[in-house]
Amino acid sequence: MKNKNSDLTVSNNSNQNLLYNFTKKFKMKKTQFALFLMAFISNFAFGQITLEHSFSSGFEAYTNANETFYYSVGEVNEVKIYNSDYTLKNQFILPQQMYIQSSKYTLSKNIFNLDNLLEIVVLNINDNGIKIYNENGLLIKDFGSGCFFGDYNSFQVFHDSTTQSNKLTILKTDFTTVVYDLGTNALATKELQNRNNLSAFPIPTNKILNIVNPNNGNNSLQVYDENGKIVINKLFTNSEKTISLDVEFLPNGLYLYKIGNFSSKFLNLIGLKSFIS
Q1: Are the C-beta atoms of residues 179 and 163 closer than 8 Å to each other?
Q2: pTM over the 0.70 mark
Q3: Whether 200 contacts 231, CB under 8 Å
Q4: Going along 84-186, which residue ranges are E strands?
Q5: What is the rounded CA–CA span in Å between residue 79 and residue 98?
Q6: What is the CA radius of gyration of the chain?
Q7: Which of 18, 50, 84, 213 has the fewest beta carbons closer than 10 A?
């Protein structure tokens, strides 16, 4: 005679095995789905970043409403300008080794000249002389020696609505300011942006960075490293025209210096050279 209890036990064991196998397969599929979903999200979120091009030296980008260009920066004896597709647009030899600053007005169009050619500002590192060339290497203007070109306040373009013309102010190393009428009347939004930046000189420096006192109601200067740590905290008086800052001891790297809500950056490079940006 067949044992009903035995049949019931076998049936229960079979059901338990089926439930166990189902649960195991479900968990495996759930895990596989989760891994697939994570991979999909990862590819979707990060898979769009691709390397387009590598320049063999320092370059910056300039863009307006319709165009993008790349131009050489740093100490150079040849200016190179590339199109947005990285093909060479123009290049020309400078009369001597000069410095191309990464700044607001370094490369522009229709600001310093009436034609449709790009304009580039270069600095003579021996006497802080500023020159402007067009993209073909033609000298547009020589402003002479003793000029600041460290930021947007020492070399500033603005639109004078009373005369409907663009003008340029340059802060000289003797702390006088000269004003030029540029003879143009159209400015891109990019060139009109107002930023609270500090002025500093000389460019470059190998020991002392002289910062022009902005007289913005603050009397303390902070320098931050790339990690946001304060590496210099210096007090000064409102009567000081410049604040002398010893940067010789700083390691190579990018630094931010601030006076109140005014700020600028400098890059400390090999051989303790600092370039203002």
Answers
A1: no
A2: no
A3: no
A4: 88-100, 107-109, 118-124, 129-134, 139-142, 155-160, 165-171, 177-181
A5: 10
A6: 31
A7: 50
Rounded CA-CA distance 85/244 in Å is 43
Pairing of strands 253-259, 220-224: antiparallel
Tokens of 12: 């229960």
C-beta atoms surrounding 202 within 10 Å: 17
pLDDT tens by residue, the chain, 277 residues = 555 555 545 455 555 555 555 555 555 555 565 555 555 555 545 558 899 999 988 999 988 778 899 999 999 999 999 999 999 999 999 999 999 987 778 898 888 888 889 999 999 988 989 999 999 999 999 999 999 876 546 787 777 767 777 888 888 888 888 999 988 776 543 444 434 567 666 655 667 888 878 777 899 999 998 889 999 999 999 888 889 989 888 888 778 889 988 888 776 664 544 444 4
Q: If 0-12 CB within 10 Å is exposed, 13-18 middle and 19+ buried, where does residue 271 land? A: exposed
Bridge partner residues of 208 (DSSP): 246
Three-class SS state of 120: strand
Residues listed for the chain:
277
- Domains present along the chain, CATH in parentheses: 59-192 (2.40.10.480), 200-276 (2.60.40.10)
Structure-token pair, residue 100:
């191309």
State how far the Cα of 123 lies from the Cα of 148, in Å rounded to an integer: 9
**Structure tokens, 242:** 């410049």
Per-position DSSP letters for 219-231, written without gaps between them: -EEEEE-TTS-EE
Query: CA 219 to CA 215: how far, in whole Å?
Result: 8
